[in-house]
Amino acid sequence: MSAMGVVLLTLSLLNGGCQSGAQVAHSTATFRPGTGFTHHQIMVDGTPRNVWVFLPKDYKPTKKYPTILFLHGLFEAGEDYQKCLSAGLGPVIAKNPDRWPFITVFPQSDGNWKGEARERIAIVALDYTQAHYSVDRDRVILAGLSYGALGTWEIGAKHSERFAALVPVSGHRATEMVERLIMVPVWAFAYTGDMFVQPQSSEEMCREIAERGGKAKLTEFEGVGHDGWGRAVAESNLVEWMLAQHRTNMTPAPVPAAGRTALAHIE
Q1: Is the pLDDT of residue 176 over 90?
Q2: Is 123's pLDDT higher than 80?
Q3: Angle (CA) 170 174 177, round 5°
Q4: CATH number, domain at 81?
Q5: Burial class of residue 45 (count of CB atoms within 10 Å of its CB; 0-12, 13-18, 19+)
Q6: CA dist 243 → 52, 125, 138, 141 (Å)
Q7: What is d(CA 175, CA 215) in angstroms, rounded to the nearest whole number?
């Protein structure tokens, strides 16, 4: 492959189908005002931060909605407020926004999601959404892509009481958080040929969670890729699984008997 071909392939993998944030936001232009993708600014420790909120087309304040807090990857960070929609879950929703059943929250970090200051961006964005919209607080999923998936491990561990499940896609490992993740169901996704984050990171996380009695499932896609959100939604029952998760129904998985090894289910 030529050098230009490598560059184009890399950009395609990073952009998750090459939709711009503006295109994603415009995908719900015909929705009733106040629904679809709407941009907001929230104050976090005295600094304004960008956040997008997707409201389903049939949104009614009298109904409680399952909700996803989505953490973008490193390349969607910064001050371009539409960029956080351009990869991961944003383009997936934009393909068929009429049928997406979740309130979905897209906070924007100024970098990755490591550290207390950036963690607060995510949590304040969730607090803001819960205060302004009809969120079912027992059905909140924390999800992410790449460094956002690392944020899913870390923020999910620190605030496990707030989430019904975690969905990290192509994430780096955070094995120091494993003990705090065993109470939250996990479905992770990775590419076997990921050029940016080795799939062994997801394998190790799911294996260690399962070995400690948690519930962790990993689906690996064959081939070269990084942004697996499109395939995760199109080629699995992930949406149905997320809809079925409920915080009050969470129970720890049985602890493995002495001398036995509990392996994560890998597809």
Answers
A1: yes
A2: yes
A3: 130
A4: 3.40.50.1820
A5: exposed
A6: 21, 21, 11, 9
A7: 15
